[in-house]
DNA sequence: TGATTTTAGTTGACTTTATCAATCAATATA
DNA sequence: TATATTGATTGATAAAGTCAACTAAAATCA
């Protein structure tokens, strides 16, 4: 496995993923972006969840997260509630509209996952994910 | 392997890759971007190579490729030569400066690859790449 | 052969993603 | 108590990306 080809192979896969996600989200006439989707999912799955949590999970700059969350608030998909533990931060919550969107998005992700993993065994997929995590861990040391 | 986690896992890996690449390119005081690097590598490895070839290889829009190549020409990293087979297109070639950059970039990629694959067998890596290609193929059908 | 369709490359306009720097206030640490 | 760190915001800017429209060359069709 030569180094250039392996890196390029991964870039290709993720690019294909993003294109597929874009296509299916668009087909549902949803106006959210991939990063919106990811943020909403994180907020739905972590409790409590602050901007800092999202930034850490995604390993992104605080500035980007602030803007991303601000957009989601504007779209009435999430809201901020005071964090009793820390006056500097706010807890993020999905609105009803956000919950509704999350359901649609989950469906999209399922479709994409099924398409991607067609004819591939659960075992192989589990191995693949394990390897992905290993590689990521190595890179982040 | 749940669908959301698997997609997220891949995004994390590629994000880590890009960050690592950025860090190492910056450390060499090179002013190129990741896409510059990828384009230069493609041009070096395909003969003949036209803008259309690059766009197809990367599965990107022609507009982006035109701009990318234009930037590389401005930086004197590549040049265009008439394509005798088709008056509409031009063959892309690396300049000496481009060749020099390519060598540095190859070193960066090798470092990243070695870091990423630390303690992982060649066999496992080959399997991983094979799987990556399968998944990409499924998505692009 | 001429008409029509497709393709290579360019430009315009706009969107999405992303980071560094600076700042202020709250919290943690020495 | 003084100092350092952290949460969030804003400014400024860069990189990556796409759709649309266009022109000219090439391919295809009748």
TrEMBL record, chains A, B:
InterPro entries listed in its UniProt record: HTH_MarR-typ (IPR000835), Metal_resp_HTH_trans_reg (IPR052067), WH-like_DNA-bd_sf (IPR036388), WH_DNA-bd_sf (IPR036390)
Matches recorded under PROSITE patterns: HTH_MARR_2
Span of the signal peptide: none
Keyword flag Transcription regulation: yes
GO MF annotations in UniProt: DNA binding; DNA-binding transcription factor activity
Record domain HTH marR-type: where: 7-137
Keyword Transcription regulation: yes
Entry keywords, A to Z: DNA-binding, Transcription, Transcription regulation
Official protein name in the record: MarR family transcriptional regulator
């Amino acid at each position: 496995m030569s180094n250039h080809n392996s890196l390029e192979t991964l870039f290709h896969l993720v690019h294909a993923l993003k294109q597929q996600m874009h296509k299916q989200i668009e087909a549902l006439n949803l106006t959210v972006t991939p990063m919106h989707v990811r943020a909403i999912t994180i907020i739905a799955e972590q409790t409590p969840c602050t901007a800092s949590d999202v930034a850490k999970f995604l390993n992104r700059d605080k500035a980007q997260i602030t803007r991303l969350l601000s957009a989601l608030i504007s779209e009435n998909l999430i809201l901020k509630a005071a964090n009793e533990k820390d006056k500097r931060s706010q807890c993020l919550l999905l609105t009803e509209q956000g919950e509704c969107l999350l359901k649609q998005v989950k469906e999209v992700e399922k479709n994409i996952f099924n398409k991607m993993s067609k004819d591939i065994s659960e075992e192989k997929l589990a191995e693949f994910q394990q390897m992905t995590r290993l590689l990521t861990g190595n890179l982040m040391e």
